[in-house]
Design goal:
With 186 residues, this protein is α/β, with parallel strands linked by helices. The protein has one domain: Metallo-dependent phosphatases (Purple Acid Phosphatase, chain A, domain 2). It is 27% helix and 19% strand. It has a 5-stranded mixed sheet with strand order 5-6-7-9-8, covered by helices on one side. The N and C termini lie far apart (35 Å). 37% of the residues are buried. Pfam families: Metallophos. GO terms for molecular function: hydrolase activity.
């Protein structure tokens, strides 16, 4: 079983295409491409974490449409970490869990998932990654906090190994010493 992460899918959100310069002809093209990309990697026994902003726009107010999109998600378990665009109808879908922030055990490591990038979190001094979305293609993250959004991962879900590989190439957050002085000295 593999654990997959993604964020900011914005299913049904026409305006996200020009806003983030997404390469799709229409919202239906985007929605089908995102689902297809998930199915390319997420196997039936896998777990998928959506780290916020599952759907947005007029379509996200239609229960039948939301259920139709949700019903196409691959994997044995699907979890939602609530983002700023995840309304009550999205949160009421039959997710395996719905949280604002969570710690996920993956490959022997406990990492923190929150839709919003944070400056510090539980386990940060011990190497726990913070996996986030929200900022779309504006910021990849830093050495210990990585953006899992579709806009910076070719519209595909990613694994912890992918996130860790990218994190090693990112700069240390310039504010890290402001909040974790002891960690910087260790």
């Amino acid at each position: 079983m593999t654990v997959w992460y993604t964020a900011d899918t914005h299913f049904g959100h026409e305006n996200i295409i020009p806003f983030c310069d997404r390469p799709f002809r229409s919202v239906s093209h985007m929605d089908s491409a995102l689902i297809e990309n998930m199915w390319k990697v997420v196997k039936p026994e896998d777990t998928l974490w959506i780290i916020g902003d599952f759907a947005f726009g007029p379509a996200a107010k239609d229960v039948a449409w939301l259920e139709m999109i949700f019903g196409q998600l691959p994997g044995a378990k699907n979890h939602l970490v609530v983002g700023n665009h995840d309304g009550e109808l999205t949160q009421l879908l039959p997710w395996d869990s719905v949280t604002q922030l969570t710690e996920v055990e993956d490959n022997g490591k406990s990492n923190v998932l929150c839709h919003y990038p944070m400056i510090t979190w539980n386990g940060a001094r011990k190497g726990a990654l913070q996996i986030f979305g929200h900022v779309h293609n504006n910021w990849l993250g830093s050495r210990n906090a990585v953006n899992a959004g579709v806009d910076v991962w070719d519209y595909m879900p990613v694994t912890l190994a992918d996130l860790e590989r990218r994190a090693r190439k990112l700069p240390i957050n310039k504010h890290w010493v402001d909040v974790e002085q002891r960690a910087a000295a260790d």
